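Write out this protein's structure.
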Amino acid sequence: MREQTLSDSNLSLFAQVHSEDLLREAFREAKRNKGSPGIHGITVEMFEANLNKELGKLKQKVESYAYVPHPVRRVETSKPNGGIRILGVPAVRGRVLQASLRGVIEPMLEPMFSPNSYGFGP
């Protein structure tokens, strides 16, 4: 998403997460990933049709500490070996907030990981 360090902004980490600019950037990331709709059936395209309203609602919920994520939709897919893999599909609003959180904390934490640590990197 963007490069940032702890000293890059006077905003608190919490304020950065729900900044309008970062939420818009996070939505663009969620849209690029082309995920399926979550439990309520709202697609990325439906979310985008009311983007200002949806992002405003999300921002307000986060600011007021009232955000509660929707349950994750459970999806079963077949594995090549015949087994079943269970995936969890979060709602679009949840994916946007996750991308926003990642956009704030990943640039600060990633430099602290060992160059030989590949399991949890971006």
